[in-house]
Every structure is written in C-alpha cells, then in structure tokens.
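Lab meeting, item 3. Inverse folding demo.
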C-alpha cells in the first residue's frame, strides 16, 4: 500500500521555500523500489526565471563524503588497503596528532581532531566573504595548514566524534595513492560509470560545459544574492550532481550494494559502512549515529534510516533511505533556508506511514510559527511582538525591552512552556491556548495575541 503523498510533500516544500526564500529545490522519492516522485520546484536561476528540473545540477556538499567512503570500500574489497590501515601508511604526516589514527577514524570522524575550519573559510572566500585567506589547493597545502595541529587534539582516536572536513581531503589523497590514479578518476571509473551517473561531476570544466546548472545563492535575511560557484571542497564536499543520478546512487544502497543486477559493493562491506561507530551531537533528530560517511537512525518508527546531508552554504542537500521498505529520498537546493534534511525526514516519515506533522522537530517548528504575532495587555495598554528566529522565539515590547530570547521547554496540555534569563535568573514564560485565542504570560504581564505578524518588507535594491 502506497504511503507517500506527493501533494502533501509538494505543499510542504513550497511553504518552506516561501518562508525562507529558497530559490529552488529538486526532489526524487523512491517507494517500494520505484521512483514515484521526481520534480523541480522554483527557479534554478532567479534572474533569468529559469525553472529547476530533476536534471538540474546542484552542489551536493558533504554527500560527497559518502562517495569517498564507497571508493575506500571498493579498494578494501580489492585488497589494496584496509579500513584499519594507519593513515601514515599512505601519507607522510609527521604530526603526533596522527599517531594511531586509522582510515577508519577519518571515515567515522573519530580521529580526535576537531573541525579546523579550513574548508569553511575556503567556501566563504569563494563567494566574497573574506574574513580570512587560506590558499589550500591540495593535500600538500592541507598538510602545511595542519602543521601545528598537535596542540589541537581533543581526544584519542576512536574516543569521540568530531566532524573533520579536513580528514576527507586526506582520504581523497589516500584513495589516489592506494589506487594509483587520482581519486576523481577512480570514482568515475569504479562508481559513477557503473551507476550510470553520467552527469555527476568532480571537475569545474565538466560543470562549465553543462547547460542545466543551478545558480548558487547566498541568503542573508531578506537578501538573496547570486554568487560564484564554490569550487575547492574536493573530496570533502566538492561534487555536483542531480536527483536523477542520485536516484541511481540511492538504489544501490537500497538494494544492498547492487544496481541493475550488477554488484557495486559487497553486502558485508556495506554493512561495515552502516555500522555505528560514534554518536553525533544532539540536534533536531537526536543527532543520530555515524558510520563511514553515513548517518544512521536505528529506530525511526521501527525502521533503520541511513543517509547523509550536505551544505556549502549556497548549495544544500540530503539523502535518506530505508532498506527494509526499499524506499528513499534525495533533495537538492541552491541556497540555505529551511533544513533540507528536515524536509527529507518528512518524506521518510510519509514512507513509513506516518504524518510528518507528528515529528518532534516539525511539531516544534509549527508551534513557533503559530505563536508569532502581535500581543497586547489589558485594554491594549502595552504592546509586544513575538517572532520566530531559528529554533527560538524573540520577544520585544514596551516596558520589557527588545530581543528577549525565549527557549522552548516543552508542552503540557494547553500550555507551551518557554524560558529566558532576567538579571542572571531563569524566568519561566508560558503561552496558553484557550477559547479567547493565544495568551502570553511574561513576568508580571498577561498578553493576548491581537493578530499575525505582517510580512517582512522586501529587500532594498
């Protein structure tokens, strides 16, 4: 019985695009082994009003890491390396920080080295936000950048999760050295070509020659600005693809390492990739667990959900699959707005037969949306305004001040609880739903919502 409802999903995407000014999204959904939904939403290029399509190319960010992990896995199966080889077997790294660090640790972000910010700076530099300059063009530059990393180690290898983009730059070079060819060429020959991913690219020249590429946009408040292509992430996040190609990639995972009858990865190897090696920091979905460049949710409505997301700020992406349902979803966008991973998990919720509105993070998001508005005290004597900012509410008003952060603290019956801090002490703040509408209880005051917020003014041109 089909569970996925494309109309509900489309309405959700359009609503969040409008709310966060995302220029476009491309989506593909697989249900019970079949592609049941595949389309583009919005404009791949605002200035030319060109519509997005399922074939439109987007940056896939850190989904790239899963391709590097698949490449490593294929080299392990070929006997050219082992997951537990020390990284110094392939790279001349002299820093003590790499003593005991294995390929396994880089793949699972458990090297003990915290994120160093190199790729983040490189990306922001590429679209004009020059707060630092790091001309890292390859593994030798990365090695120079990491020369003093010994003093930055946070844990022993395997002891703690620290997301390390720089580690995947090193893994790209390890793939190159173990295979005897550039990682980009190995990936194309051993993974992309067998999966018929003919428009998935690692090289700028290939993207430049393509005629269906999404324009990247920096979204800063109400301002949506086209930017140059953010090249330079390499093996950590530099690939470009489209949802048609990525559907084939999803099918390979869903079918246990096979694609159209051809084995790409052995089941045992894939199982190692999907084995949890670390717990991620708690987020909207409790963070999940981490394998080899794959995020794992072992019990989502009784199902194991696996995948990865990505962001290079001007492109965002997410893929998730549920093997026992032979189902999955991939989403791509040319901007940073509403979480693409949350939208993907809404699709997964439908595919498992559940209402996305019942997901904890989506319930919270809807609650925050509902609480926004203009509020007034008895007979309208004092005015206050409540706005949603990310996962919080911002309260401003007469006699109470501006930009008071309200932190969600749970729901109980008709009460939505929040808290803030006043003069260093925790202050309880409650919203109450009753027959008169929504009421806000803050410090000495009781407010009643008098109306919704007005739309934000358009950006100045």
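The presenter then showed the designed sequence:
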């Amino acid at each position: 019985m089909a569970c996925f409802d494309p109309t509900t999903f489309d309405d959700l995407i359009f609503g969040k695009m409008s709310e966060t000014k995302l220029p476009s999204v491309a989506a593909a959904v697989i249900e019970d082994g079949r592609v049941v939904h595949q389309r583009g939403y919005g404009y791949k290029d605002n200035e030319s009003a060109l519509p997005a399509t399922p074939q439109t190319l987007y940056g896939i960010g850190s989904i790239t890491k899963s391709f590097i992990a698949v490449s490593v896995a294929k080299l392990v199966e070929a006997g050219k390396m082992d997951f537990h080889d020390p990284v110094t077997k392939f790279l001349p790294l002299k820093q003590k920080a790499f003593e005991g660090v294995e390929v396994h640790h880089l793949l699972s972000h458990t090297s003990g080295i915290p994120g160093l910010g190199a790729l983040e700076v490189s990306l922001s530099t590429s679209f004009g936000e020059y707060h630092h300059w790091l001309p890292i063009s390859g593994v030798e530059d990365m090695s120079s950048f990491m020369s003093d990393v010994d003093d930055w180690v946070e844990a022993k290898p395997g002891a703690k999760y620290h997301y390390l983009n720089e580690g995947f730059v090193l893994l790209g070079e390890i793939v190159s050295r173990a295979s005897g060819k550039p990682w980009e060429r190995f990936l194309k020959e051993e993974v992309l070509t067998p999966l018929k991913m003919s428009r998935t690219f690692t090289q700028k020249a290939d993207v430049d020659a393509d005629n269906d590429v999404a324009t990247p946009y920096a979204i800063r408040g109400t301002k949506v600005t086209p930017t140059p292509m953010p090249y330079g992430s390499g093996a950590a996040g530099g690939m470009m693809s489209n949802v048609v190609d990525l559907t084939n990639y999803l099918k390979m995972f869903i079918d246990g390492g096979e694609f159209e009858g051809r084995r790409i990865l052995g089941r045992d190897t894939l199982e190692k990739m999907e084995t949890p090696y670390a717990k991620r920091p708690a987020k909207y979905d409790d963070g999940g667990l981490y394998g080899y460049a794959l995020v794992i949710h072992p019990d989502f409505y009784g199902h194991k959900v696996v995948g990865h997301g990505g962001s290079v700020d001007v492109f965002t992406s997410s893929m998730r699959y549920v093997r026992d349902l032979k189902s999955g979803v991939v989403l791509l966008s040319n901007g940073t707005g509403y979480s693409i991973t949350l939208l993907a998990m809404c699709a997964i919720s439908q595919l498992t037969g559940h209402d996305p509105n019942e997901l904890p993070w989506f319930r919270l998001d809807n609650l925050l949306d509902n609480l926004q508005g203009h509020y007034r005290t008895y007979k309208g004597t004092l005015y206050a305004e409540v706005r949603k900012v990310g996962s919080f509410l911002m309260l401003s008003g007469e006699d109470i001040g501006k930009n008071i952060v309200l932190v969600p603290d749970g729901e109980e019956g008709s009460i939505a609880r929040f808290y803030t801090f006043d003069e260093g002490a925790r202050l309880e703040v409650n919203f109450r739903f009753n027959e008169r509408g929504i009421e806000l209880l803050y410090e000495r005051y009781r407010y009643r919502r008098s109306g919704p917020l007005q739309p934000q003014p358009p950006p100045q041109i």
